[in-house]
Amino acid sequence: MLIPAAGDSIQIQSYKHNGQIHRVWDETLVLKSKSNLMIGANDRVLVSESDGRTWRTREPAITYFTTNHWFNVICMVRNDGVHYYCNISSPFIIDEDALKYIDYDLDIKVFPDMSYKILDEDEFDLHRQQMNYPDVLQKILRKQLGTLERWVQQRKGPFAADFVDKWYEHYLSFPQWSK
């Protein structure tokens, strides 16, 4: 796996279990990168959907990807506080094209007061049947959903009080990226 340097731009590609592309974020600034971790940032980035639609994100976001867990976290910096969108997903890989992961539909939306809601369980059930998720994979995904819930409750990792502030300030130190 390639390890991009801080300050590099990287594309993020989300796939489905069947190998089909799901969503692409055109560019994200790498803030920190190791073999098991990538923290990035973007703002008003172009996003392309598998059905051909495109749109731009509305606010600055800090992204958190790890190979140690089956989830990733997008921390969206809004006027009323930080909102988090957490994807249950495969651990990421990076190749010469992009950071890549498989999106397994289950999501957690976390609000600024740290309350949260589990989303898309119906989509997960549909896709696990359509794409024949193995039992062992389903167990991993459900277990990781529980781990992610505990992280939110314990304010761990990207949910820690100073995480977003620290990385957002670092992002702003790259004037060519912050808008």
UniProtKB/TrEMBL annotation:
<dbReference type="GO" id="GO:0016787">
    <property type="term" value="F:hydrolase activity"/>
</dbReference>
<dbReference type="InterPro" id="IPR035930">
    <property type="entry name" value="FomD-like_sf"/>
</dbReference>
<dbReference type="GO" id="GO:0046872">
    <property type="term" value="F:metal ion binding"/>
</dbReference>
<dbReference type="Pfam" id="PF04167">
    <property type="entry name" value="DUF402"/>
</dbReference>
<protein>
    <recommendedName>
        <fullName>DUF402 domain-containing protein</fullName>
    </recommendedName>
</protein>
<feature type="domain" description="DUF402">
    <location>
        <begin position="18"/>
        <end position="156"/>
    </location>
</feature>
<keyword id="KW-0378">Hydrolase</keyword>
<dbReference type="InterPro" id="IPR050212">
    <property type="entry name" value="Ntdp-like"/>
</dbReference>
<dbReference type="InterPro" id="IPR007295">
    <property type="entry name" value="DUF402"/>
</dbReference>
<dbReference type="InterPro" id="IPR016882">
    <property type="entry name" value="SA1684"/>
</dbReference>
<keyword id="KW-0460">Magnesium</keyword>
<keyword id="KW-0479">Metal-binding</keyword>
